[in-house]
């Protein structure tokens, strides 16, 4: 299992600001007060490929630079972020499994107590019926 080189945790706020900036740059949003104007669908589909960031961003917001173009520090940072996210996801899965197992044990005990209780009540009802018939 891969271990982290450092134990720093990335700030989630910083990632959100970076993603907003990327979206802002990608769609070439203007800071002017043209909120009421409509943009043609044709203009939206025409995006210059030179302006697109070649780095990839996964679904959790980690920036993954190209290995051939990245510095060692960037690769270590990306590795640490991915390792911490993997550990967090594993902990979430383990917690979910433990919670579900605990709930299963509680339900099993409840069903067992209900079934044992029903058997006792059935025996008492049978005895009462025999007394009434006899």
Describe the overall structure:
The chain is mainly α. It has one domain. It has helices at residues 12-26, 41-45, 72-133, and strands at 56-57, 63-64. Strands 1-2 form a two-stranded antiparallel sheet. Residues 32-54 have low confidence and may be disordered.
Give the helices and strands, then pairings.
Layout: H1 12-26, H2 41-45, E1 56-57, E2 63-64, H3 72-133
Antiparallel strand pairs: 1-2
Task: Give me a quick take on this structure.
This protein has 134 residues and is mainly α.
Keywords:
134 residues; single chain; mainly alpha; LALA0S10e03928g1_1
| Shape annotation | rod-shaped
Strand order of the largest sheet: 1-2
Spatial extent as radius of gyration: 31 Å
Helical proportion, percent range:
55-70%
Number of strands: 2
The number of helices is: 3
Instruction: Kindly report the average pLDDT value.
Output: 73
Total domains:
1
The chain-level structural class is mainly alpha
Whole-Å distance between the termini? Answer: 74 Å
The fraction of residues in strands falls at under 5%
**Largest beta-sheet details:** 2 strands, antiparallel
Poorly predicted ranges: 32-54
- Assembly of the depicted chains: single chain
Biased composition (Basic and acidic residues): 34-44
Protein name: LALA0S10e03928g1_1
GO biological process, one term: vesicle organization
Biased composition (Acidic residues): 45-56
């Amino acid at each position: 299992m891969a271990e982290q080189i450092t134990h720093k945790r990335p700030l989630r706020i910083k990632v959100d600001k970076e993603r907003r900036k990327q979206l802002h740059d990608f769609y070439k949003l203007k800071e002017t007060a043209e909120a009421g104007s409509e943009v043609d669908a044709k203009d939206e589909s025409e995006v210059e490929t030179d302006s697109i960031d070649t780095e990839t961003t996964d679904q959790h917001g980690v920036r993954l630079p190209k290995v051939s173009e990245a510095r060692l520090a960037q690769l270590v940072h990306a590795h640490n972020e991915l390792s911490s996210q993997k550990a967090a996801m594993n902990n979430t899965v383990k917690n979910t499994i433990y919670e579900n197992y605990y709930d299963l044990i509680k339900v099993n005990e409840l069903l067992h107590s209900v079934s044992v209780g029903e058997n006792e009540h059935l025996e008492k009802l049978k005895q009462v019926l025999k007394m009434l018939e006899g």
